[in-house]
Every structure is written in structure tokens, then in C-alpha cells.
Amino acid sequence: METTVDNLDTPLVLVDLVQVEENIKTLFDAYAGYPGVSVRPHLKTAKCPEFARMLLNAGARGICVAKVSEAEVFVDAGIGDILITTEIAGAVKIERLINLWSRARDLEIVVDNARVAAAINEAAGKASNGHKLSVLIDLNVGQDRTGVSSKEEALELADSLSRLKNLFLCGIQGYEGHLQHLPPEERERRCHRSMVSLVETADWLRRAGHGIAIVTTGGTGTGEICASHEGITEVQPGSFIFSDAAYQKATRDKYKPALRILAGVVSKPDANRAVVDAGLKSLSMDMGYAEVWNRPDWTYRPAGDEHGIIESSTGSLALATGDRVELVPGHIDTTIALHSEFHLTRRGRLEAVWAIATRGRVQ
Q1: If we measure between CA atoms, which residue out of 178, 138, 176, 137 comes closest to residue 159?
Q2: Which residues pair with 139 in a beta bridge?
Q3: How far is it, in rounded angstroms, from Cα 358 to Cα 363?
Q4: Residue among 309, 188, 185, 184 at smallest CA distance from 247
Q5: Is the pTM higher than 0.90?
Q6: Cys staple from 151: which of 2, 88, 136, 204, with CB 3.0 to 4.6 Å?
Q7: What's the rounded Cα separation, in Å, for the pair 14 and 9?
Q8: Which residues make beta-bridge pairs with 262?
Q9: DSSP-assigned letter for residue 246
Q10: 8 A C-beta contact, residue 314 and residue 297
Q11: CA 348, CA 345: separation in Å to the nearest integer?
Q12: 191 and 179 in contact (C-beta within 8 Å)?
């Protein structure tokens, strides 16, 4: 019997490949208007080498990941041009990084601490074989998470890096993740302010004699604002490939949902309430509840680990036990991390099943 979506069990992750391709095209068409800016998509969203290859074939410069363990998956798949966008500290993590770098010399990392950089430099010496590990300084541009806090601190760190023989300072990163979903006017105003700080710091370091070739920043909600600033060389959007309910609003429907959770109705207690088999273990709620695909008159809310409830604004819900509904996650990244497989469809037909290869890769 042919495997179709209809005979797969729920809940599961459906990916509309046609919409994925349209979202990728929309993004690269948009950045074609910024010829000095490269796109290095963040794979913390798509989480598998097959989607990485789609993005590289579309023109991506390389990819980003958040963790060393994620980078290992992509290097194993033959993808080596990777920027790890979060700090790496501690003997265990550094050893793992250097082991990976010995196999992937195009690897880039970020640092915000001279002591950590010195420890990485020492470990890198054991595997350098004449190579230097590429490093970017992480600058806090308002998110108040990681990064040096001023251009003066950036210069102090750059001077320290210049004295480390196994590291090569190639750029600066400043991520304004806190701005991605703000209302458009506020997002643009505050993003411009962040980019002024980032570009001025890069110029400050250059005037001090440091070779800052890469200035990387930007997400799905802010990337084009960032790219409009002279001096930005690279952006890191990721969620655009699938989008979600939050980003659909933030981008004014520019990137349309390509990933949905297929859920089954397991109970119909009354005329306006259906219980589905997708709850907190299937849909993350950190950025709001999921939305019912193509049914703005229906709402979804979680009802525990295994269940969710769908209701209609009309007072009568046209669902029966055994029916299925598609749910657009509120936050795509954290929802995907709950699942093991992508079920890829094209015009309603099941085309492939891909592993969510970096699921659980949080080290």
C-alpha cells in the first residue's frame, strides 16, 4: 500500500515543499537588492542537511548554527562553511570544538571574553597544522544576552585576539533578536540604532588596525533593515523558510507558513469543542498558541501534554472524531525541536520523510 499522509499517524510535522521553495525565492529575491550583503541562513530552524543544501543551492554563502553539536551534524553531511553564533566556553565544549575544527577548517566562531579566547587558542594549537581558527567578536547591540558592551571593550578584545597565534579575527557579530517581532515602525527605528552601533564598532576596530571583513547580523524580521546599512556584509535569517504564526504577522505575510502540525480529532464532547491529539508535547507555546490553518474562525488552545482544544467563533464546530486539522505553530524553532521527522508534501502528495537531524543537539 502506498504511504500517504492519510495513513500516517498523528500528530506529525507536515512541510509544504512548494511553499518552502517560494519562501526561499522570496528571500533571495529581496536580498538581490543588496549586492554587498551575503545571506548565511541560520539552521537552528530547519535542522537538517537537506534544507541546508536547498539554501546553499539558492545562493547562501554558508550556514549558521547555534551549537557545536549542531555543527557536527552538518559537517558529517559534507557542509563545512559554518558560523557558530553562540559563545563556546569550558574545557569540554572547547575540546569538542577543536575536534570539529580539525575536520572543518572553514568553521567560524564568536567570542566575547579574552580569557575564553586564550583557552580556545591554546587548544587550537594542538590541531592547527598551520591553520588559524576564524573568530568574530560578539557585540551586544541591545539584546543584553551575550557580547561585549561597547566599542572600547571590542577593541580591548580585538587587541587580545591579535596576540593569539592560533586565532584569526575576521569580523564582528551583533544580533538584535529582541527586535524581530516588534511593531514595524518601532522595529525599524530600534534596528537602525543597533546597526549604527554595530557598523561604528566595526569601523572603530578597522581604524585601530584590525581586519574586520565580516559584519554579520539580522534575522527574518530585521534582516532587510540591517542590509540597508552600509557596512553590513552578512545576514542570518532562518525562520523564513517555514515561517510561523508570529513571523507571519511580523513580516506582514511576506513569508507564508510552510510547516504545520497535523493533528487528529480524538473526542468531540459538544457541538463547539473538539479535542485533538496535539498538546504541549507537540506545539511550543512560548510565543503564543498555534493557529488553525485556513480557518480564522477557529481557535486552538493547549489542554495538557497530549491534548489541544479547537473551538469555533460561530458556536458550532464542523469537526468529528477521526477528522484531521493542520495547525500553524506560534514559534517554529521550538516546535520543530519536539519532533523527529519532517513529512514533506508537494501539492498534497507525500514526497519524502527527512530526519530532524539536529533535534536534541543542544550541547
Answers
A1: 137
A2: 148
A3: 11
A4: 184
A5: yes
A6: 204
A7: 12
A8: 12, 326
A9: H
A10: yes
A11: 6
A12: yes
